[in-house]
Amino acid sequence: MSLRTLMQEGSSKVNDLFARLSDTTEGAVKTREKLFGELKGALELHANLEEEFLFPLLRKNSETRGLVVEAIADNKNLRAKLTELDTLPKNDEAFIPLLAELQKAFRQHARDEKKELLPAVQSALSAEQVQKVTEKMEASLAEVEQARQEEAEERRAKARREREQAELEAEAADRQQQEREAAERRSRETASRVANAAAMPLDVAAEATGKVARLVTSSLRAEEQATPVRAPAPTRPSASAFTDMFLWPWAGAMQGLQQGRQTGPSGTRAPTSQEEVIPLGEEVLEVTKRTENRGTARVRRYVVETEVEEQVTLQSERVVVERRRPVSDKITGEILTEVTVEVVETAEV
């Protein structure tokens, strides 16, 4: 690859980035940031190649030192505009106008490089020296490209690690949710068993009360049948009274049974004036509630960049010069006059 071709490839890449960046809108902030990063890297690389490989050769020649001063001033101006764009928000209204100024300045720099710098280098050096300089520049470009690929691979690896970490966190959150649901289910089952166990003593007590009431009733009936003549006695507790009692009715029933069976010397029941006191029981159930922390859910959104490729049609413009019969100037009548016409060939890469 020749020196001219090498430098023109860099200029073509920069012009392509300018065109793609100019077509973006204010809403495409991510796209602008990505394209501007590539443009900044390409401009810095182009300027560094000139300053590292071309300018030292031109400084050795007294006739080309002035070109070096002008080129350094152009690079300084490009870097200043680039820094201004770098600090500007990418969705700012002034971004596109400043980008157009930077593009205009680079185009002028590329024209000066093509018309003045490169011809001066080729005239000051031999073909062998120019080829050596070209090879050094190609090696430097290869190193930069290798570093760029390694950086891109590192970004992809980092995005992959972040994605895997997010998946692990999501799986852990799902497991925690399942464990919480299982714990709640076990708690409900335990509460149900406790409630059932608490209801069982009530049923047992009711059944025992019924048995005691039936026992007292049968005892009283047997006593009435065995004693034909009896003295008046206080009213005995009825069976329904025993049935309405809970726990203490057992003691009261046994006491009433003993009093009913007490008889005098004649075989009759002795009257009694003692009062029977039945204590009452009361249970108070207090129900409270509390708030428990059941965990924290975290939702995270991240951007994953994927490189894509697309086939596009490239266009190029070539300059074709055709010789025709000369014509005389209508005003001066002269035929042999000097005329310079400059036409730029362009190609999309």
UniProtKB/TrEMBL annotation:
The Hemerythrin-like domain covers which part of the protein? 14-121
- List the biased-composition ranges (Basic and acidic residues): 145-191
**Domain of life where this protein originates:** Bacteria
Q: Name one Pfam family in it.
A: Hemerythrin
Where is the region Disordered?
144-194
Q: Where is the DUF2382 domain?
A: 278-346
Q: Could you identify this protein by its name?
A: Hemerythrin domain-containing protein
